[in-house]
Request: fold
Amino acid sequence: MQAQRSIRIVITGGTFDKHYDEISGVLTFKDTHLPEILKYVRCTLPIELELNQLIDSLEMHLSNRLQILESCRRAAESRIVITHGTDTMIETGRILGEAHLAKTIVLTGAMVPYSFTSSDAVFNLGCGIVAVQLLPDGVYIAMNGRVFPWNGVWKNREAGVFEEG
Amino acid sequence: MQAQRSIRIVITGGTFDKHYDEISGVLTFKDTHLPEILKYVRCTLPIELELNQLIDSLEMHLSNRLQILESCRRAAESRIVITHGTDTMIETGRILGEAHLAKTIVLTGAMVPYSFTSSDAVFNLGCGIVAVQLLPDGVYIAMNGRVFPWNGVWKNREAGVFEEG
Amino acid sequence: MQAQRSIRIVITGGTFDKHYDEISGVLTFKDTHLPEILKYVRCTLPIELELNQLIDSLEMHLSNRLQILESCRRAAESRIVITHGTDTMIETGRILGEAHLAKTIVLTGAMVPYSFTSSDAVFNLGCGIVAVQLLPDGVYIAMNGRVFPWNGVWKNREAGVFEEG
Amino acid sequence: MQAQRSIRIVITGGTFDKHYDEISGVLTFKDTHLPEILKYVRCTLPIELELNQLIDSLEMHLSNRLQILESCRRAAESRIVITHGTDTMIETGRILGEAHLAKTIVLTGAMVPYSFTSSDAVFNLGCGIVAVQLLPDGVYIAMNGRVFPWNGVWKNREAGVFEEG
Reply:
């Protein structure tokens, strides 16, 4: 459990970082909340924060996912957490998994934006940050307090939770 | 990563569950916030919540720690998260560690009460919940985004963080 | 400044009470937050809470506004606060104003939903609750820390604020 | 209801601005939260913020209150809101009231610190900001959604509310 090695957090947006625009009345993106969160949760790990993109995962094209894959390849770190929209998180997981990188990669996100008072965002971030330190090389999804291999999970859209399968 | 087996969360209080009493103006205990937290973070693991005690860990006597040890022994679950005050968390960790239970036990807590807007409580809970699912039998401390064996950590009181050592 | 007489709060929805639906990812209505708010802000006034409707004011028809007018007429209380969407708040204000009820009516709302961490909702509620106790009969808008007669205000949609005019 | 004239907010601390020090585990003062609050509540009034002192009102001596009186005298503004600890708010109100300044002065505060998730601070601030715009010259207390003349109120310490009397 050596913490001297950095963990990279690759930020891609998703519901996690959604922002309420009071002029238009819609949920959109503005800045990422990751720097502020890491500070008040008192995370002492060396963290490299990478603002890769800020996009709703329903709007992702293959190019968006390849951009994430490229970041993972290039990263000096061998342990990477990716914040990602939950809707197509598994799709990105598949692309990363099939690349067989010699790294531990954990995707996480949120069902409720961080900027809401009852959000799962910070809990999920904690889950992801510990998962990436304890798991062997591979690609995983950390949601709902659980950790799944990318190819052993599906999103139950009706219930809004991730399940084994 | 089988989630069908329950995880037990043994609640002992600490700063995590401190409550501001507006009449007296002091921080004290009222109820635990764990049920409400587990609900909005959308944790789908089967969880057994045990309200063991609500105490500031600076006020713990050996009997308080033995009460926690007893809960761990008796528990049907082999994976236990304990919410605990940070001041003497390692002391309780030692008592549990030296009992050599065939269980994975993770202690976590908070430097800032959950009821404050910028609290590390929920992040730490996420860390502890994933740690307990991934670690082998033993006793650990999950704080500051990291996981330490109970006998490889100390609390740096000046900085308010846990460090290897 | 007699507080023995009740104040009626007529709830009509608007951004104030919007709720994030995590399954669909949209802002919608579920329950009103007013009971919970009045409790933790420690408001000791006798308050009659009326859940009149839960609607985005952009979707209001004349019938929705007449429903509010009817509530104001029927109310035993002579001091009424109305929580309302900001987009057509002045329109409802006009209908109430032109009815010349012998009552003090204050409309307020929020630019950011109460359920967000940085919302103006609770501040505006405080403004409205005091305004209705201090103003003579008439219809007013309380937004941005200010109080305007219904016929002396417009919504600056670009800036997202209410101004004299 | 002319808003072109500034309102002065004289900050004196109290529970409103208390801050949880995670190293010592006590509630103390650090910075005032007023600038941040006024921004996200979208208050468009011209406001002069004066950081007069940051003190628990139980620790106030006459000199602390006279310092507030002096600020009120010197102020260019004729409408002043004072954030103050609730314990001796009426005492300061008396000193200001007996000075018979040709100004409208409203004292407000909080029973629960702003930094807690369920605080009355922002609601009370809204109450005070509207009260100061609508009331004639004099000194008032705005708490619990109500407005009292300084000499017609007492703090019911058992219930933690202000009442007529």
